[in-house]
Give the backbone structure.
Amino acid sequence: MTFSNDPYGDFRRSLEEMVDARHQERRDPLDWDFMEELLISYLELNDRTVHKHIIRAFTDVVVSFRRHYCGGVKNAKKAETGGRRRRRRGAGRALTSPLSTEPTEGNPASLTCS
């Protein structure tokens, strides 16, 4: 268990590390079975009060991965945050990350670029 002043940032970094460990080659499509398992793990391991940070971080990681996979975006960092800083809430809440990066069974789903 960890306590954080920036739960969103900590969850995002942790999720990015997990996705990077699973997807060594950024050109490969996301494995949605793995992503679902990852999200469920974070939600099950953490208190309901931090679920909003997990969902937001997960969504931002997926959007970021999609932008890189689909050729990138100018100023991607600004695009991800909408160019604004959000007020941090929930500082000091307990955080837990999954310990395993074991692959899941099944074929990875493809990520479609529109």
